[in-house]
Automatic annotation (TrEMBL):
Stated name of the protein: Peptide/nickel transport system permease protein
Gene3D superfamilies: MetI-like (1.10.3720.10)
Subcellular locations according to the entry: Cell membrane
Iron keyword on record: no
InterPro entries, per the entry: BPD_transp_1_N, MetI-like, MetI-like_sf
Membrane topology: Multi-pass membrane protein
Keyword entries, A-Z: Cell membrane, Membrane, Transmembrane, Transmembrane helix, Transport
Membrane-crossing residue ranges in chain numbering: 25-46, 128-147, 159-184, 204-224, 259-285, 305-331
PANTHER family from the UniProt entry: DIPEPTIDE TRANSPORT SYSTEM PERMEASE PROTEIN DPPB-RELATED
Lineage per the UniProt record: Bacteria, Bacillati, Bacillota, Clostridia, Peptostreptococcales
């Protein structure tokens, strides 16, 4: 039986979105290759010799100078550092995009792909959970501030958000440690699990996630407030009110949907920034995520891990831009009609 005129199957609705998403993902490939080239060039210019950094002093202490030099040259050849930079770049591309190994870690003495998966998962766990709660909290607070513009609630919230934006993440982390670890003794200080099995694993997440929430919430709230204020001035909002619709329907059904458009932009840019900023938080709480791994790799001159971590952050930024484009299509019918055929 044919569909009624004007009706579409789920497949017909989803296909244009999938096609557009596929085109956007393909378009980021050359940009990703350019990013990989810049990353490799910058890392190659880092001071210090990674081979010398990985030498075991106890193992080389009994060697003669000739034996030590021979050992260093052997390791240099094994790691591929005896090859020209251009050749090493293409070898890294092959290992990364074709074989999925991302190079060889001198810190862990194994391919990077055997190391990095757990760190990425833990970073996603902290940052996505934290951002999710911050986003959910910011929506009602920001909407209420916009509706009560220039009133006591709005002025108080403005002061609090400015203070929140001004406080760096490491300062908030130290305050939380002082309160919940030192004074109240309710939460563990660092790590991700208790080897004794006494402290539940979720308690190790509380402080890092709270820092992410507190650092994200002020900016998100101000952005939601500003977007709602702009939308509440629109003619269609005044028309909806003139029709006798309740204030809740006007705000949440008509105004907030359009206010989501600039908020989608913020979300797309904010998530990659969260992972980049997690270096400080993960380092303070000794939480083994991507930020912690990147800082450790820099200390050991582990170029393979540094390159992979920076490529991961670059990929997140590109995917954030794709999320923005797709998000526009979802929340705004006008953009959807212009983008999807």
């Amino acid at each position: 039986m044919e569909n009624n005129r004007g009706s579409k199957t789920i497949f017909e609705v989803i296909t244009p979105y999938a096609t557009y998403l596929g085109k956007r993902l393909i378009s980021i490939i050359p940009v990703l290759l350019l990013i990989s080239l810049v990353i490799f060039a910058l890392i190659s210019m880092m001071p210090g010799d990674p081979i010398m950094a990985m030498l075991d002093p106890e193992k080389t202490a009994t060697m003669t100078t000739e034996e030590r030099n021979a050992y260093v040259e052997t390791m240099r050849a094994f790691m591929g550092y005896d090859k020209p930079p251009v050749q090493r770049y293409f070898i890294w591309l092959r290992d990364t995009f074709l074989e999925g190994e991302f190079g060889y870690s001198i810190r862990f003495n194994k391919p990077v792909n055997q190391i990095i998966g757990g760190y990425i998962a833990r970073s996603f766990e902290v940052n996505i959970i934290g951002f999710f709660f911050a986003f959910l909290i910011s929506i009602p607070i920001g909407i209420t501030a916009a509706v009560k513009k220039n009133k006591l609630y709005d002025k108080t919230l403005t002061v609090l958000t400015i203070v929140g934006i001004s406080l760096p993440s490491f300062f908030l982390a130290l305050l939380l440690i002082m309160l919940f670890v030192v004074i109240l003794k309710l939460l563990p200080f660092s790590g991700m699990s208790d080897p004794r099995g006494v402290i539940p694993d979720w308690k190790y997440l509380v402080l890092p996630v709270t820092v992410v929430v507190l650092t994200s919430l002020p900016s998100l709230t101000r952005y939601v407030r500003a977007a709602m204020i702009e939308v509440l001035k629109s003619d269609y909002v005044r028309t909806a009110r003139a029709k006798g619709l309740t204030e809740k329907v006007v705000i949440y059904r008509h105004a907030f949907q359009n206010a989501l458009i600039p908020v989608v932009t913020l979300v797309g840019m904010w998530i990659p920034a969260l992972f980049g900023g997690s270096i400080v938080v993960e380092r303070i709480f000794a939480y083994p995520g991507m930020g912690y791994l990147l800082s450790e790799a820099y200390n050991y001159k582990d170029r393979a891990i540094i390159q992979t971590a920076l490529l991961f952050f670059g990929m997140l930024t590109l995917l954030g831009n794709v999320f923005i484009d797709v998000g526009y299509m979802v929340v705004d019918p006008r953009i959807r009609e212009g983008k999807v055929k």
